[in-house]
Design goal:
The protein has two helices and seven strands. By secondary structure, the protein is of the alpha/beta class. The protein folds into two domains: 1-57, 2,3-Dihydroxybiphenyl 1,2-Dioxygenase, domain 1 (Roll), CATH 3.10.180.10; 66-118, 2,3-Dihydroxybiphenyl 1,2-Dioxygenase, domain 1, CATH 3.10.180.10. A four-stranded mixed β-sheet has the order 4-7-6-5, with helices on one face. Strands 1-3-2 form a three-stranded mixed β-sheet, covered by helices on one side.
Length: 118
Amino acid sequence: MKPRINALYLSVKDMKRAVKFYENVFNVKVSLFNERISSFDFEIFTFLLFNPKIDNEKLLIGNNIIPNIEVENIKKMLKLIKNKECEIIMPLKKIDKYSIFQTRDTEGNIIEFYQLEN
């Protein structure tokens, strides 16, 4: 069997703040919420948020992984992110057949949004 990635989690400092941010960005309600781990379930993938303090773990928070998230309208997403006053790490640009930008979420993690151009 080939390896298959079914989930990814980001470390966060403030679970409530992070969940609120991603509910807004994904336009979906959190599937599971608690102070240790919260999840957003998609068709074939689960996006999780993990608070390492609950387990007394020391993890790097921010820029330890970069989720690459496809959106239908990159300009609309960029506007939403700017309205959240999040830092834009890489401005909107076209790379090959993709329009992409990177930002920091409320927890300091870098996230990338992209749209496949027609």
